[in-house]
Sequence to fold (206 residues):
Amino acid sequence: MNRKQVPKGKLVRRFGVNLFDQPKYDRLLKRKPAKPGMHGTKRGGKKASEYNRQLQEKQKIKFAYGLSEKQFRNVFERAKSLPGITGDNMLALLERRLDNVIYRAGFACTRAMARQIVGHGHIHLNGRVVNIPSALVRPGDVIEVKPREHIQKLVREQLARNNVKSRTTWVEVLEDQLQVKVDHIPRREEIPTIANEQMVVELYAK
Fold:
């Protein structure tokens, strides 16, 4: 996939938000609060336009979930076709991605790692191997790690490091069985806020 590879630390400093939900980036923002680059410490300048602010909010979400521009646009179009609030639908669709669920469950330390685990066929969804990171989970779905010693060992190591309870409330994580059960579609209040999704909706509405 054609993704522009930008160091995560620079992205976090550019937007001033811990997009990747990792403690090291909180520490980075405290140590280096200014934007990256030689002009990062300068104040003032032109006030950002409405379009620029909307674009920034979209970029935050896109980078956080590791999507390409085309993938993100497809998610938005699908969200727009669903009943309810488009911004809420968009975030719910992003959260329901299989790679994101693996990450939220604590089976991986980053979404990139979760995407790799899924892509290599290490995950079963309702008893069948699924290697598509963008596959959407539904209420009642059961996700489990393939019964291979090396991948199960890796996942258990990740679970020991990650604070699962702080990551999600709409799935149940069974650590002993290395299983995740989807309880319901995530509600807006269950999704961490990293950007103003309404501004993204306004951006695409133009």
In short: Strands lie at 123-125, 128-129, 142-145, 171-174, 179-182.
